[in-house]
Amino acid sequence: MSVLVAFEFDTISIYADAKSPPKTILLVNKLRTEPVIKGIEALLAFVSKAYPGVRVFHEDRPDIPQGVEVWEPGAASEKIDLVVTLGGDGTILHASSLFNTGAVPPVLSFSMGTLGFLLPFHIDDFAKAITSVFEGKATILNRMRLSCSFQDQERNVTPGGETTAWQVMNEVALHRGSSPHLNTIDIFVDGQHLTEAVSDGVIISTPTGSTAYSLSAGGPIVHPSLSALVLTPICPRSLSFRPLVFPSSSSITLRIGDRSRAAAGVSMDGRVSHVLNPGDSLTVQASPFPVPCINRSSIVDDEHPEDPPDAEGAGPGKEDDWVRDINNLLQYNATFRSKALLRHSRT
Hints:
Region (Disordered): 296-320
InterPro entries: ATP-NAD_kinase_N, ATP-NAD_kinase_PpnK-typ_C, NAD/diacylglycerol_kinase_sf, NADK
Shape: globular
Number of domains: 2
GO molecular function: ATP binding; NAD+ kinase activity
Strand content: 25-35%
Family: Belongs to the NAD kinase family.
Protein name: ATP-NAD kinase
CATH superfamily of the largest domain: Probable inorganic polyphosphate/atp-NAD kinase, domain 2
Radius of gyration: 22 Å
Order of helices and strands: EEHEEEHEEHEEEEEEHEEEEEEEHH
Number of helices: 6
């Protein structure tokens, strides 16, 4: 049964006016190296001084910073208005997993020197970015998530007894794991049998996840503002099994074939979660709860609001973060000419 899920993927403003700024912040960070510790201390000091009434929360971990309140995910947890992450892309994926049963608050992500597709701000810019959010000037891009559920051979019991669908931001990968044998996987789309895949596995990704594992397996690069599911085979035993892109209204089921010689592992956003035996299946569809990520391009320099557009692109606040990322991070369509020659050709 397919479920139609409608999203507004255009960038939209958050906190429409400064009269309703965030009252609670959840701080999510990677392991506390010295740069992370200093970044957290500076950020907390700024929030405490500039917005003294705001409550700051943190997961219950041994390295919890001083001056914050403990927060645990769940239906009874304190309502969070803004998530602030410090780390890499994996930190944002972890933040997404903390809201596995419902809506995700807007996410403001800061890089700690690493590169990633989900890291629009450097930690040095935290004061300007936070101020823009509290003043209602920031915009967000709703990044689609996947909702995943499991069925055993009887199609009515989930392995491990889970009653809530898993929410995935990048991808769900069904793979042969350590087995030397290929998996045999029956693929169904909206209940209709699409194909029997004999391969190392299959990846179903969001547009955001199209630049992660799916890209390494030969999948297409999809703009995150699109609403779609990307199906990418992993080392298929066929020259004609090519990646496919489905609308977000589709429901995709991957069933381990009865003739499969091995069980299959399931990884979600890089985390191993399940083992499926022959006859077990996994169903994936669009989640109604996307991840609202705050755009760097929406933070315009107030000191120079009328700066002319750059000669090589759009003006401040108008550029597409994703276009910048595929050029800077993937070196999209880069030629064999050296960077020095490219710089020389522009002068």
